[in-house]
Amino acid sequence: MKVAVGQWPVKREWQHNAAQISEFMRSAEQQGAELLVLPEAVLARDNDQSHWVIEAAQPLDGPFVTQLLAVSQSLSITTILTLHVPAAEGKARNVLIVLQGGEIVLTYDKIHLYDAFTLRESDNVVAGKHLPPLVMVGEFTLGVMTCYDLRFPEMARALARQGADLLILPAAWLKGANKELHWELLTRARALENTCYLIAAGECGPKNIGHSMVVDPLGLVIAQAGERTQLLYSEIAKDHIDNVRQQLPVLANCRLSALPS
């Protein structure tokens, strides 16, 4: 299956971002991709006003998603992204959505909020409480995560144990000391330890690293973007997962659940 990963610097006005996403969706479909993965929090961003993502939040039936659903209805490609949705008490939910055929077929509220490296996402965002369900795209079973979820191996393992063979990660990975190293190390580890493909889309621009990538079930980076706007393509194969899991059956060999507590 051909997959696409898009990255760009998210702008303040949602209309600009909706237009960029729509362009990526049409371009990826024209190139034969069946899946498009986009970054985290792509509705609106102002790097000089950090609270803008909350003020600009829209419900899932708002104009931003409505415009994307209209594009999705005319295409066969599946598109995955996250946006901020209004919640109670002036906060928002960071919601991942999966678009197929003009419908939202899956939503996931980000569980692990980025309260790290001096920042506190939980000051503005309500944490999710439920592991996301799996979703099918072609012959692949997808498990979804969002950004900081990557640092919690239990989540990727839970999705793999439920049957995921392709892990999806929209992200806005902040720049900082060794952050590119963390990004590559963690994406490759999550793929290898679960013998899954992993597609990670990272926002690029002045605050975030970009470097979207596709990692194979042996932890090898098979496609990687740089730091600028880019639509990245890669081919993934179900039989490669099957072959890796025959040679390296870590999911089948794991005995922790059988040990006494």
Summarize the structure.
Keywords: Hydrolase. The protein has 261 residues and is an alpha/beta fold.
Task: Please tell me about this protein's structure.
With 261 residues, the protein is α/β, with parallel strands linked by helices. It has helices at 14-30, 52-55, 63-73, 153-162, 179-194, 238-247, 250-253; strands spanning 2-7, 35-37, 78-86, 92-100, 103-109, 125-126, 135-137, 140-144, 166-171, 197-202, 213-215, 221-224, 230-235. The mean pLDDT is 96.
Shape: globular
At the third CATH level, what is the topology name?
Nitrilase/N-carbamoyl-D-aminoacid amidohydrolase
> Mean pLDDT, rounded to whole units?
96
Unreliable sequence segments:
none
Q: Please state roughly what percent of the residues sit in beta strands, choosing from under 5%, 5-15%, 15-25%, 25-35%, 35-45% or over 45%.
A: 25-35%
Radius of gyration over all CA atoms, rounded: 17 Å
Helix share bin:
25-40%
Biggest β-sheet strands, sense, barrel: 7 strands, mixed
At the fourth CATH level, what is the homologous superfamily?
Carbon-nitrogen hydrolase
Task: Tell me what the CATH architecture is.
Answer: 4-Layer Sandwich
**Number of DSSP strands?**
13
- Compressed to H and E, one letter per element, the order equals EHEHHEEEEEEHEHEEEEHH
Q: Return the domain count.
A: 1
The secondary-structure class comes to: alpha/beta
Distance between the termini: 42 Å
